[in-house]
């Protein structure tokens, strides 16, 4: 589910559901949450790197489980999505992402919590919220505008379009685009530079870097959670999941027309 390796005070967490494109089911949310908590508390770990196994970084929330949630046949994990986002938001040490392939949903929005993002030149991300009939998540309504500016963040969060590695670097969402075979080595080279420093200094430096956000992350998550609650299982979301299962494009115009006629 998740592989953990340590090297020179750097802990590498590898999301390891390659057959599911490292999509987050409840078990992977729980495992990642606990791995981050353990790394935060471990005095031998100075920096954490998250990457993915296989051809994907993460395909986001497992859509099979999302459909189960809508049908009422869903069993929540111990921590789930909220617990993992809590850990990402509060993680006190430098957090690097090595985005090795496609990243969708939380596989894209978690970039907003990283201190440095390295992307394979073949990697790309998508925030598919509007194509699923839902709303942004994981405080991306604050982190993305802070990193990208409002208009670029609006395009990334509202369009459900793919964004390539070079464009992510140009926008400010990633630090470097690296050849696929060099991605992890280049990420670790930078991580080890920081890992050679005092952990206390790294923690306090990160704290002051993020202090300007104040409680905006928590406020953003509360607003996003409410928007998600209103939309999850609604007509557009049901149409999106049905279309996904039927391997067709969703017809949101028809959904909107029915809503207008009924309303």
TrEMBL record:
**Keywords on record:** Isomerase, Membrane, Peroxisome, Transmembrane, Transmembrane helix
The protein's predominant localisation is other
Pfam families, per database record: ECH_1
Membrane spanning residue stretches? 95-118
The protein's location, in the record's own words, is:
Peroxisome
Q: What is this protein's name?
A: Enoyl-CoA hydratase/isomerase family protein
């Amino acid at each position: 589910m998740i592989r953990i390796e340590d090297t020179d005070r750097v802990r590498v967490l590898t999301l390891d559901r390659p057959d599911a494109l490292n999509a987050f089911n409840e078990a992977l949310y729980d495992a990642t949450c606990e791995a981050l908590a353990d790394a935060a508390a471990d005095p031998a770990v100075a920096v954490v790197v998250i990457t993915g196994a296989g051809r994907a970084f993460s395909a986001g929330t497992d859509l099979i489980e999302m459909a189960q949630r809508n049908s009422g046949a869903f069993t929540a994990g111990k921590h789930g999505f909220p617990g993992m986002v809590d850990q990402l938001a509060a993680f006190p040490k430098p957090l690097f992402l090595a985005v090795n392939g496609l990243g969708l949903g939380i596989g894209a929005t978690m970039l907003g919590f990283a201190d440095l993002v390295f992307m394979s030149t073949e990697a790309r991300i998508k925030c598919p919220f509007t194509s699923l009939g839902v709303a942004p998540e994981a405080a991306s309504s604050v982190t993305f505008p802070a990193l990208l500016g409002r208009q670029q963040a609006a395009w990334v969060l509202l369009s459900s379009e793919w964004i390539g590695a070079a464009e992510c670097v140009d926008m400010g969402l990633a630090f470097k685009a690296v050849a696929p075979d060099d991605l992890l080595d280049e990420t670790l080279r930078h991580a080890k530079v920081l890992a050679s420093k005092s952990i206390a200094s790294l923690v306090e430096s990160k704290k002051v870097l993020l202090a300007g956000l104040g409680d905006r992350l928590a406020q953003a998550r509360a607003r996003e959670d409410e928007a998600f609650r209103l939309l999850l299982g609604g007509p557009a979301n049901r149409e999106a999941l049905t279309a996904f299962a039927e391997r067709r494009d969703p017809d949101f115009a028809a959904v909107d027309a029915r809503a207008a006629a009924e309303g």
